[in-house]
């Protein structure tokens, strides 16, 4: 199995360039930067991709990149998946977690998180939106950055963010926007 894992990693884990990390850091506070750097390279690259797409479409919410009001949106894009870093799961484990969630239902996450070994890691991974929100609250991030980490996989009716901002973040996360 681990040969397959190495293959998947070699195909997908492209670390972001130092310039990209520097660009990302310019939108983050010092504690947020530390959280960002704890993420895996795959997650860092994904998050930078989401942030670039948001940056290219800020006009959808009447902002541009130099606007101080855009900073929380960029931070939300960069840190929405930060809870994934808690589980310590690699590509193979994430596949297991995704399949387990499909088979057992997302309610199993909390039970599994109390077990040990792989079961615990899978359980933690399934709870990553909550874990991410907790990490960001401890880092004293903007309330909207905390909210988006928690809400980004919830149905739209349960979002607390401004709807247009949340839609922009979601479209960027789903790869539906070009990065210009
Ligand atoms: Fe996510
Ligand atoms: Fe994401």
Could you explain how this protein is built, in words?
This protein has 180 residues and is mainly alpha-helical. The chain has a domain of 101 residues. Helices cover 66% and strands 0% of the residues. Helix 7 crosses helix 9 and helix 10 packs antiparallel against helix 11. The longest helix is centred in the N-terminal third of the chain and has 16 residues.
Could you spell the SSE succession in H and E letters? HHHHHHHHHHHH
How would a crystallographer describe the biggest sheet? none
What is the number of strand segments?
0
Span between termini: 38 Å
Ligands bound, unique: fe (ii) ion
Query: What is the 3D form?
Result: globular
User: What Rg, in angstroms, do the CA atoms define?
Assistant: 16 Å
Number of helices: 12
If you average the pLDDT, what whole number results?
91
Instruction: Indicate the proportion of strand residues.
Output: under 5%
Structural class: mainly alpha
- Give the fraction of residues assigned to helices: 55-70%
The stretches of 5 or more residues where confidence is low (pLDDT under 50) are none
């Amino acid at each position: 199995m681990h040969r397959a894992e190495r293959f998947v990693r070699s195909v997908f884990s492209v670390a972001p360039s130092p310039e990209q990390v520097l660009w990302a850091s310019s939108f983050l506070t010092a504690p947020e930067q530390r959280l960002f750097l704890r993420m895996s390279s795959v997650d860092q690259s994904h998050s930078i991709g989401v942030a670039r797409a948001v940056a290219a479409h800020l006009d959808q919410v009447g902002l541009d990149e130099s606007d101080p009001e855009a900073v929380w949106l960029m931070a939300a894009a960069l840190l929405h998946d930060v809870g994934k870093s808690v589980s310590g799961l690699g590509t193979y484990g994430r596949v297991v977690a995704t399949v387990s969630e499909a088979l057992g239902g997302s309610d199993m996450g909390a039970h599994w998180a109390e077990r040990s070994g792989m079961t615990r890691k899978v359980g933690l991974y399934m709870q990553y939106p909550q874990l991410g929100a907790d990490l960001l609250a401890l880092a004293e991030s903007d309330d909207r950055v905390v909210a988006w980490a928690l809400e980004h996989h919830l149905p739209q009716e349960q979002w607390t963010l401004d709807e247009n901002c949340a839609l922009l973040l979601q479209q960027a996360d789903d790869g539906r926007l070009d990065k210009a």
